[in-house]
Please model this.
Amino acid sequence: MKRPLCLASVIFLGIWLFLAGGLQLSKDQKPSPLEQYTQDGDELILQGTVSKREERPEYQILSLTDVQIRHKEQFIEESKLLVYVEQISNQTTEKETASDRVSVGSQIRVSGEVQFFEEARNPGNFDRKFYYRKQGIHASVWADSCQIVEKKTWDIREYLTRFRIKWKELLIECLGETYGNCMSAILIGDKSELDEEIKDLYQKSGIGHILAISGV
Model:
């Protein structure tokens, strides 16, 4: 009697997993409100909370949550969005001041052009659109202006952000840019500057799980 019950349980579990996976895939493929009502290059004004911050030599990458977007006369809500804020030296501008002081937890207001992610051009290549869509991110914005609306700091996340930045700088300093970025992807899960050819090589060689395990 136990065997039929076990078999029925396994079959039921398999059906449930199949349906759950199908529903998730359908959700991932559904266009977001931003994709439905805007086009690549449209000017937006948006406001959201910084949940993650990454430093680059020439710009910052800010991950926003609970994003309120204004496009012409429309108001759009997105759960997540990426914002690129250019680092400008030797000049004092509103954008520079805000980007230098922004921390994880701050609420910011940004204006700039929306950019949607590209799909893989060739089979086996890295699919940027699919990668970000799985994270619930459907677009990015290059900021023309950026200002802090409410200054807050999520201490633990901000500390971890600074730790990751310093650790990555040390890896690049010791190993060089190419190998430093590769080790950064494996050790701290930051693949943002990982060479596309190396990324494709990992995937085609069947060892992409090394990057996946690291949280990339």
Remarks:
- The first helix runs from residue 2 to 29.
- The longest strand covers residues 43-55.
